[in-house]
Amino acid sequence: MILGVLGSSISVKKRVVKHDTRCLLHIGIEEEEEEEEEEEEEEEEEEEEEEEEEEERAQRKRRRRGIRRKRRKKRRRRKRSRRKCTEDEKLGGRYELSFCF
């Protein structure tokens, strides 16, 4: 051998093959249990994602509601200030520009 000439030794590893001593029925049951566990985990993850999406939607809704309220409030203030200005003009008095926008 060429390897013998180079001075290196060859070690042959024995391969130990482990035989499954369980019967096929038990193996099938275990595989089904593993599949069921995986399905349950996937369902739980989907439920968590749905809950997060619902929370995000609720937050957006609250935010929009708050923005709408602010806009309405500003609109009302502007209308009031315009009314004040026009009433003052009708009376012939002067009005402050700070009330008019």
TrEMBL record:
Region Disordered, residue ranges: 27-87
Domain of life: Eukaryota
UniProt feature, compositional bias: Basic residues: 59-83
Chain intervals with Acidic residues compositional bias: 30-56
Protein name per UniProt: Uncharacterized protein
